[in-house]
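Sample intake sheet
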Amino acid sequence: METTHRFRFPLSAAPATAECDLTFHCELEKAWPTPSSRDALYLSPARNRFGEPDLEIYAVTGGSLMRFPRVAEFLVAPGRIDCRLQDGGAGFMVDLYLLGDVLSYYLELTGVSALHAGAVAHDGQAMLFAADRAGGKSTLVASLVAAGFHLLADDIAALEPDDAWVTCRHAFPQLKLTPEQAQRFVGTAEGFEPVHPSFLKLSVPAERVGDIAWESLPVARIYLLERRVVTGDDTAIRLEPLGPGEALIQLVRHSFLAEELEGCGTAGGQGGTAQADMTRARFHRLAAIARAVAVKRLCYPSGYQYLPEVHRAVLADLGGAPAGERQAG
């Protein structure tokens, strides 16, 4: 991506020889004319304090318009994303929207599946960890990075299937950690900016936790996390393989924009053929991923003291011997 926008949190620099395939431009306190409701592809059921949808997506000439009413709008088109920030005091939201919903939508439009999952690398392979909110994804991914695995993605894993394998792209080198997690894996929670003024999580440069993977890698496993509270003496770690049908259902469910992508086209808009084509392509892409990659449930006990054993279980599942872990139990 090429841009003059100054991000609050640094992204990784592209090699000098890299070709730009996406430009991003942002203008302050401007807005596009509000599209007609007949062009609405998606209207979020969640509402802001003014009673407006939190997110609106419209089909417009040349692309899609993603509106976060009264804050920012993003025109998403092939090779280009333009932003118009309506609230000059909410500039920090540009980064959150762009590197979350907007870029995920752009990836889906360009044939890349965006899963709500963290990803780490080991021995030239990628492992993904998907979970519901508060499902333990951030803790497990951060612990793996601290233990010697390389970070590929913290929150959004971008997957591309081809004839040989499924590839996971590397993402920006940031971990979103609570103060408790930062204290655990970095040694301090001081000096890190909150991801959002109202959020507990902090933006922690991944290099403060461990190493970073700088290349896209083939995916060896996708793990669906089920963290449980320990009762009695049951501290067992279980790995349960999923069949392709159940794996596909779970991949659809764990898409980063699952609700938005499933809801697109149900708002009565005229996005019609293009939206139907995108939906079909997305389904076939996820089906190809479910066939090509082993998807497993990873059931494990809650508690920092059990994480090293979870690491060993993952390595054993991959067929590798446990690496020398840097994190103390």
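Comment: Residues 321-329 have pLDDT under 50 and may be disordered. Helices lie at 92-109, 137-146, 179-185, 244-253, 258-263, 272-292, 307-318.
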